[in-house]
Amino acid sequence: MLSYSLDLRGIGGKIKTKLEDFQVTELLNSGKPVPVPPSIFFTESQAGGLYVAGRLLRRGMDHSRMIRLISKRFKVSEDHISTAGVKDRRAIVVQLFSVYTPSKLENLPSVIELDEDLILDSFHYRREKIFPGSMSGNEFKITIRNTQETLKDVDQLFENGILNYYGYQRFGSSRPITAKFGRTLINSDYEEAVSIFIGHLGANDDRTFRVDYQNDVKPAEILNQTRPIPHLEYRILKHLAKHPKDFEGAVKSLPKVILNISRSAFVSLLWNFYLSERGLNADVAKGEREISNNIEIALPSRKWKKPLNDIWEHVFEKMKVELSELKSINHTSRNLRLIPKYFAAIMEDKNLKLKFLLDSGCYATTMLREIMRTDPLNYF
Known about the structure:
nine-stranded mixed beta sheet
């Protein structure tokens, strides 16, 4: 159980009851939201470049399906599509994307509707792909419905910031396997990776194919049964049906973005444990430094010869982490405090409506956790 930052009673409630209850819009580096409806919002107008970029609007669609539909439309590998970040599935999302297309596309329409829940527009060529550094953050409009308590002075709640945890969705919402799966990738234990990805049951998971895999039913037999199998799991099972025991090939059939997110999720889990033990105290330990009104903290990486301070050492002992597990992890850092750039709240009956801006890499669900104080499995 991770520690909390604020001294308050949780209000409970539900999020994402309706898609409109969770809206995310990326912020340009100017700090302004990507406009809706479309307008000329790029500072550079380029006739050249190897990337086609544009804006997308999606409703209730997960990142993997979105990438898959775009790759089919542009006839490129899924690995040639990039975004500034992975957003929530149960949400209305406005974000930018880019597609690596060395050949010029002819007769590209002004709007492409790939699905009733995915629309692309505002196309232009650029020399660089869209990546996490392309955006400064995200604007959120969120409604928490059917709350059990009323918060006082809610506008001032986050003035001093809270612990900057990674949100629950970083690790998987109803099936939190991402960090465990990522650790097996880091250790090149591909057979165990497949066992976790295919066989691990989530909350209220009625996917009988997962139980079948646990019971050593052959992948080909699982595929031949008439029942829905999620796309990514289908990829792995299809590969194993053709190439039994090639667990590495099966795992690497997944999109690179999924593999990269999973590896980094393991480090994210270590970070959350570190923050929970450290708290918000102002003392600066080894591996930390003061910056403006925050403290920047180094995350575990291949540069580490040993844990940088006593708290990291305790986290490593708790998780049984070996330094060899960090050999593929690049150096990065993260701020101690999550401090919204803007925050406003209105209580209407038992519904709390929020609007706020967060820097890239910060999670709205981290703020909701402080307010709601319920298990993420009960959020919906």
